Amino acid sequence: MKKNFNHPFHMVSVSPWPLLVSLNLLLMMMSFIYYLQEFELSYFLILLISLILLMYQWWRDVVRESLYQGEHTIFIVKMLKLGMFLFILSELFFFVSFFWSYFHFYLSPSIDIGSMWPPKGVKIFNPMNIPLLNTVILISSGVTLTYSHYNIIMLKYYKSMFWLFFTILLGLYFSVLQWFEYEESYFSMWDSVYGSNFFLMTGFHGLHVIIGTIFLFVCFIRLMFKQFSLDHHFGFEGASWYWHFVDIVWLFLYMFVYWLPF
Length: 262
Fold this sequence. Notes:
Layout: H1 17-36, H2 42-68, H3 74-107, H4 130-153, H5 157-183, H6 192-224, H7 234-259
Helix pairs in contact: 1-2, 3-6, 3-7, 4-5, 4-7, 5-6, 6-7
């Protein structure tokens, strides 16, 4: 492609990753729907691993364009920030749809579920147990991530790596506890509209925590290779924005899905 330097935009080279990632996401959603019809979950997990590998390839190219080719100018970084903001905004509307469904049935439960919420016969989780611990974990992870970001600004990279690694451990701990909570659940996704709403809302949030943890792990690797500087560390900032968004969503989940019905 012939370069035209009369504009501030970065004309990226032809890349297979957007198409492959899109197809992978489509197949992931299809496999999840099949799982709801009592098919194997293994297909979804295989496609999740495939997605991680594809994202690694894509991020590798982005890092090369920024770090080695110098394509990410101040203008491009502004556009990347705008893109990340719009992405998080789209994720916000994604969760708004779940909360809309939840409150629709919470405020006006049908006679099919006994005109009560939660439905009669559904034993819900105690919000003072694992849910409260997970809340403390995510809030703490937000604090440690902010401190890691502060150390990047202060050019204290080893301290930043320490606090970022601690944040990753907290994210993994949250995921393990949520899996344990699912294993101990007295109801399933197929137990009325309450079970469907609960597992879709908390499950997709848990998936976002896993994705956010992967984001942070990529940032940790880049910190090890000293690929961040005071002026150029948007990769870290973008991951931080995403993680704080996941934290905020969890607070609403805890208040309305765990604590309010209890």
